[in-house]
Structure formats: structure tokens, C-alpha cells
Design a protein that fits this description.
This protein is of the alpha/beta class. Helix content is about 55%, strand content about 25%. Strands 2-1-3-4 form a four-stranded parallel sheet, with helices on both faces. Helix 1 links the parallel strand 1 and strand 2. The longest helix is centred in the last third of the chain and has 21 residues.
Length: about 140
């Protein structure tokens, strides 16, 4: 399985840990992973779109960490990044797992770092399902 992972660098320490767990899970499951780094969560959907358009991937994963601050910006970034990920998945027909954490604080994010590995498992499971459904035609 060829897996593309788009990882945000914002909230760098948390994002790096999410990515490390995602990469370890991909290796464990025997997937060939290509990592693309972007500045923040709002840049993830367009990078996913470029990877989906390349035709080189069986599944994609979005990785990032958005932590609530004192302004409305959190809601914009959390909602629009999730909407963008889903939009690209539906447009492309390619399995895309959303591993972008949206938490109240760093403690909540630290408790959810396994979401990077979980997103890889979900993406690969959906890629296998897609493959089976296409073979049944």
C-alpha cells in the first residue's frame, strides 16, 4: 500500500509526536509512506488534493494539532481543515483519514497522540475496502 501523509508543523512538538506514531504504524503495517510537510492545518487540504491528483497513492492521512486559544480562530481552523479534508476525500474517492487533533489544551493533545497511528490504520483499512469493492465489479 502506498500511503501519503500530510503533516502540519504548527504546534511542532505535538505534531512531530503524532507524525512519528503515524510513521511507525505505517512501517508496522508494511505501507510505503511519503511524508509532506505543510505550515498549518489550513494548508493540509490543498496538499492532500495534490497528492490525490497524482494518482500515486492508495490512501492519505492528515496529521496536525489545533489547540484552542483565546480567539475565534480555533473554530475556523478546526472546522475548515476538517471540511477540507472531507471535501477532498469525497471529490477524489480516495480514502483520507483525519488525524488532526482539535483540543482545548496541550494536556488533551498529549493524551490523544495515538490518533496519528489510528489515522494510518483507518486509511489503510479503507484502501483495502476500496480495493475489494473494485475487484467485485
Amino acid at each position: 500500500m502506498r500511503l501519503g501523509i500530510v503533516a502540519s508543523r504548527f504546534n511542532e512538538q505535538l505534531a512531530r509526536k503524532l507524525l512519528e506514531r503515524a510513521q511507525a504504524e505505517a512501517r508496522k503495517l508494511g505501507a510505503e509512506a511519503r511524508i509532506v510537510s505543510v505550515p498549518g492545518a489550513l494548508e493540509i487540504p490543498v496538499a492532500l488534493q495534490w497528492l490525490a491528483q497524482s494518482g500515486r497513492f492508495d490512501a492519505l492521512v492528515a496529521i496536525g494539532a489545533v489547540i484552542r486559544g483565546e480567539t475565534y480562530h480555533f473554530e475556523v481552523v478546526a472546522n475548515e481543515s476538517a471540511r477540507g479534508v472531507m471535501e477532498i476525500a469525497l471529490q477524489s474517492g480516495l480514502p483520507i483519514a483525519n488525524g488532526i487533533l482539535t483540543t482545548e489544551d496541550e494536556t488533551q493533545a498529549e493524551a490523544r497522540l495515538e490518533k496519528g497511528a489510528e489515522a494510518v490504520r483507518v486509511a489503510l483499512e479503507m484502501a483495502k475496502l476500496r480495493q475489494r469493492l473494485h475487484e467485485e465489479r
